[in-house]
Fold this sequence. Notes:
about 20% strand; alpha/beta
Amino acid sequence: MKSNHRSRRSRVRDGIKIVELGGALALVLAGCSAAPSSSSSANTSPIVIGYNGPITGHGAHTGIGLLEGAEVAVQAINNAGGVMGRPVQFISGDNKTDPIDAIPVAQQQISVDHIVASLGPASSELVATKRYYDAANIPIALYGGDTTYDKITDPLIWKVTPSDSELGVAMALYAKKAGYHRAVMLFDTTQASQQLKTIVTRTWVKLGGTVAATVDYAAEQTSYRSEVEKVIAAKPDVILFYMTAPTMGVMFANMEELNGLSIQMVGDDSSLGSSFVKVVGLANHQKVVTSLTTGTVTSPGLTFFNSLYATKLGHAPEPNANYGYDGITMLALAIEKAHSTDGQAIARAIPEVEDPNNQQVYTFAQGLAALKAGKNIKYVGVGGPLDFDANHQVYGPFGAYKATDANGGTRLIMSLSTDELRAAGAP
């Protein structure tokens, strides 16, 4: 099975421009400029959607998949005739997983590129840029597991990836159901990783598991021999972990040297990506790694997504590509539903095109046809059903997967239902 799971600088625009005030950048109203609307059929200019995410740097292993998935979505949208009869133009900006670098990306895309919606930035970068997006009324398809935005009240922000609050529960629940009892928690010292570790540990203990040891480490070092020695000394039957692909390469080399590759490992969704498989070797990955990720595995839209992705990019979907695809598709359908590029109107339309009581559609083309026929729709994503709660969060089933090849092939070995996850994660 080829799966889509890969657990991603002064002009006036929309009455807003960036000016220099006392050495600091600020957003101010630009006179009488009106918010854009696209009700005229004569308007054939592109509708611009931005991406503010990591393309280089330590977060590139997540950002590249998001970017590629978004590009596939844009192709599908334009192949279907575009939004309101207008092509979608996609503008990407590299924030290097750094809040400081995310600011000029946001400013460029808002004031120069004239975006009407955005995929990202992720939670940690959104803290630094939110005021710019809010001032310009830019709706955001938020990605990333960081728990900072677990309770969203901003009507412009909708989180299309499951929170680490759910991912951590899924990792611990799978390990327990798979028959493991004694775990080592192996997580790097970044904030997001530590947040995930807290959730995994809490759930593991609640389910009756024993924490044999907790080993924290700095990401992307040249050796992890001392950390691996601590892991092995704890005598676990499973390692619950998060690490980047470069870290995994070094960690696995040290584990192999110390005969530690007999210990099973349970990781997050990114650990299933082809970059991870290639850095440790397919045989080693298959031998010890199981990855937890969400997704509507049987969605009719999955075959279309995988086929278009392979045709456009020549390989199976990378980690997080499904979320980039879903985020752009959802935003495009909301723009079509609102029949406007006004940010507030788009934001109001997002829950309308994700209402579970409406007719289900699985591709942009299906949604476009239904909207033109006057029907109310519910877009079911390839990264999950996109069932939003009152906090603008998605919650859905997870699966445990093993890699079948080094190009993104996977095999489902266990499904975890929404009810199971809610029960395991409840206080």
